[in-house]
Design a protein that fits this description.
The chain is mainly α and about 190 residues long. It has seven helices and no strands. It has one domain.
Length: about 190
């Protein structure tokens, strides 16, 4: 990031060409994921939270780009996606019936640590700090935009906490020797 002030500024409208490209790339990726999910919806157990995730992310990033604000918070959301390689490897190892492998267990433990560090600690602390820092500018937005800005952050945080609880319960079962957890669909 070329502008470290982005995550500490009180200016809700602070953006750079890099944040615009990042938000556009993230929006394209989430739209692609939603398209895949809609195509395979019949094969996806418990897909409702992912639909909420995708629709709220698309709506939020469209507002960030169209309104020219929220780019700092959009980066927090994008950084949360750093946990995806662990989730994807978990899926592929499970599909290849490798749940008993050392790689599956190590990946699962790294997934738990990454989820806690990035999607709970970082996103909760950094996202809340950004909203607090930019509250003056948020109050200047039309009420519906301010509510959407804070609301979409809340939706993401609730989903991360809900999925995190499932992940932590699954990790506990594995570490306590009670076998592997049911498929995690997030």
């Amino acid at each position: 990031m070329h502008n470290p002030e982005l995550l500490t500024s009180q200016n809700l409208h602070l953006k750079t060409p890099d944040t615009c490209r990042s938000a556009t790339a993230f929006l394209a990726w989430v739209t692609f994921e939603l398209t895949c999910q809609m195509y395979y919806i019949r094969h996806w157990k418990d897909g409702a939270p992912m639909l909420i995730h995708h629709f709220s992310a698309i709506s939020a990033w469209l507002l960030y780009l169209q309104g020219g604000y929220g780019h700092a918070l959009s980066l927090v959301g994008s950084i949360c996606e750093l946990t995806n390689p662990f989730m994807n490897l978990r899926y592929f190892l499970s599909a290849m019936e490798q749940k008993e492998s050392t790689l599956y267990v190590v990946n699962g433990l790294l997934f738990v640590v990454a989820w806690f560090a990035v999607r709970i600690c970082f996103s909760l602390l950094c996202g809340s700090y950004i909203i607090y820092q930019q509250r003056g500018d948020i109050y200047q937005l039309p009420l519906w935009r301010a509510a959407a800005f804070v609301g979409f952050y809340g939706v993401g945080l609730c989903l991360n906490l809900t999925w995190g609880l499932k992940i932590f319960k699954g990790a506990y079962k594995v570490l306590a020797g009670k076998g592997h957890v049911k498929e995690h669909t997030a």
